[in-house]
């Protein structure tokens, strides 16, 4: 959604399957934009309330549901909570980023933030150096602090990936070796006849005189 709100781009995604075209959202007054921007979180809130209600009925004994149902409700509720918390990561252009842009009155904050970061690290080209002249005062004012919010968030995501996800991936890669059979493989050579090893050892040690 945030892509659509800022700069009049096309749609964002709600979950993994539904898409919403918010191209015409900028034609509405600012206060009327919050409904479409918060629609995804509103649906998630209703669904989360239903899941928690079902789990509460099970825990209080009102609903005698199987244990599998209780576990599924708890797991689904956890997933919904994580999805809603994910929306608070405004540096990833989530729905709440779009709400922030609308509340502050920005028009192209994401681009202005990028230009300011590139200038701070000395990577701004001549063509890019001329772009901030066309930006609004609001974008420039908000971009001065939002660029550091984005940078801190990006660094946090990288650290989270390295400290939490990489060890999990490494452990998963070790699973095939742990699944190998502990029994020794069968030898393809034919077994020696009884007494052959002893006879060979005696011949080796005594020799022929």
Task: Write up this protein.
By secondary structure, the protein is an all-alpha fold. It has one domain. It has nine helices and two strands. The chain has a two-stranded antiparallel sheet. Strand 1 (12-14) and strand 2 (18-20) form a beta hairpin. Helix 3 runs antiparallel to helix 4 and helix 6 crosses helix 8. The longest helix is centred in the last third of the chain and has 42 residues, at 137-178. The protein is flat.
Write the layout of secondary structure elements.
Blueprint: H1 2-5, E1 12-14, E2 18-20, H2 34-37, H3 39-59, H4 67-86, H5 95-104, H6 109-120, H7 126-129, H8 137-178, H9 196-206
Antiparallel strand pairs: 1-2
Helix pairs in contact: 3-4, 6-8
Keywords:
209 residues; mainly alpha; 9 helices; 3% strand
Compressed to H and E, one letter per element, the order equals: HEEHHHHHHHH
The coarse silhouette is flat
Find the structural class using helix and strand composition: mainly alpha
Mean of residue pLDDT? Answer: 82
Helicity range: 55-70%
Number of distinct beta strands: 2
Concise summary:
This protein is 61% helix and 3% strand. It has helices at 2-5, 34-37, 39-59, 67-86, 95-104, 109-120, 126-129, 137-178, 196-206; strands spanning 12-14, 18-20.
């Amino acid at each position: 959604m945030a892509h659509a709100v800022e700069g009049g781009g096309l749609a964002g995604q709600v979950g993994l399957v539904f898409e919403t075209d918010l191209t015409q959202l900028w034609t509405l007054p600012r206060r009327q934009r919050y409904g479409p921007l918060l629609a995804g979180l509103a649906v998630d809130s209703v669904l989360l309330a239903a899941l928690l209600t079902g789990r509460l009925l099970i825990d209080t004994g009102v609903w005698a549901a199987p244990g599998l149902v209780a576990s599924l409700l708890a797991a689904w509720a956890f997933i919904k909570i994580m999805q809603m918390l994910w929306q608070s990561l405004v540096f990833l252009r989530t729905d709440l980023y779009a709400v922030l842009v609308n509340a502050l009155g920005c028009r192209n904050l994401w681009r202005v933030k990028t230009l300011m970061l590139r200038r701070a690290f000395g990577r701004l080209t001549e063509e890019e150096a001329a772009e901030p002249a066309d930006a609004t005062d609001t974008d420039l004012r908000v971009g001065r602090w939002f660029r550091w919010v984005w940078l801190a968030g990006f660094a946090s995501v990288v650290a989270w990936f390295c400290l939490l996800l990489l060890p999990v991936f490494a452990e998963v890669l070790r699973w095939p070796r742990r699944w190998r059979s502990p029994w020794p493989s069968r030898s393809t050579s034919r077994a020696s006849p009884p007494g052959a090893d002893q006879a060979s050892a005696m011949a080796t040690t005594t020799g022929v005189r």
